[in-house]
Amino acid sequence: MKNKISLLVMVLLVVPQFTFAQLKAIEYKDGIDNLAGYFGKAKGKLLDNAGVLILPAWMGIDDHSKESAIELNALGYHAFVADIYGIGNKPNSPQEAGKISGSYKKDIQNYHRRIQLALDQLIKNGANPEKIVVIGYCFGGTGAIEAARINMKVKGIVSFHGGLARDSSRTITPITPKVLVLHGADDPYESELEIKDFQNEMRTAKADWQMNYYSNAVHAFTHKDAGNDNSKGVAYNKEAAERSWKAMLTFFKEIL
To answer: Three-state SS for 194?
Structure first.
């Protein structure tokens, strides 16, 4: 019995490594800064080498973003998980994550550049530059919206529980990529005013946009490690996670 338990423990420890083994670590640079993202090649039927750039949440590259890449690979999409912070700069706590991610929101052009560099890596590794979508979670969802705001050469963007706020001093210009925002109806981190301003921005920019609300869902509703206590403002919601993923795939079929 003891040997069986030991074997089970070994399997549980090894499985995640095999799960992520299909992802290839890709090192690249931003000037003198070293970055390292993860590329996953499409499996089975290739969809014209369509690619998905994945922007992680504020803790940086995590299991959730890697799992998304693997799921997309299985569906026939190339995927690249972007490294926004750079090697050695991954935050160790939510407090650090808030400080680091906040610096990118403040210096938004720096965030734009890191997203573009990751997009370049996705294309360099085989994705069709005419068939690309950017998706992001939380802080990465903000990044996906920013990709639309500056008209990166992508077909569309998908924001999962991302921040919607925009510096009011920035000029609103026409948005070309199609936009899908997947939002927790009870997310306490987005005020009614921010949501209203975002929707008005999309109208002013003449964007092709959609915004889905998920009941009983708060911030980070796609993250399994977020717990299940909505009162904390951050919690996993299985139903909302599954519904939003399906909505994204429907969006992909439309625009790709």
So the answer is: helix
pLDDT in tens, 6-31: 433 333 333 344 478 899 999 999 99
- The answer for residues whose C-beta is within 8 angstroms of residue 106's C-beta and 6 or more apart is none
In angstroms, the CA 247 to CA 83 distance is 25
| Burial class of residue 28, CB neighbours in 10 A (0-12, 13-18, 19+) | middle
- Compute the average pLDDT of residues 138-156: 98
Q: Give the amino acid at 186.
A: D
- Give the CA distances from residue 203 to residues 135, 152, 181, 213, in Å, rounded to whole numbers and listed in that order: 21, 19, 14, 18
Query: Burial level of 168, CB count in 10 A (0-12/13-18/19+)?
Result: exposed
How far apart (Å, rounded) are the C-alpha atoms in residues 256 and 155? 7
Identify residue 249 by its one-letter amino acid code: L
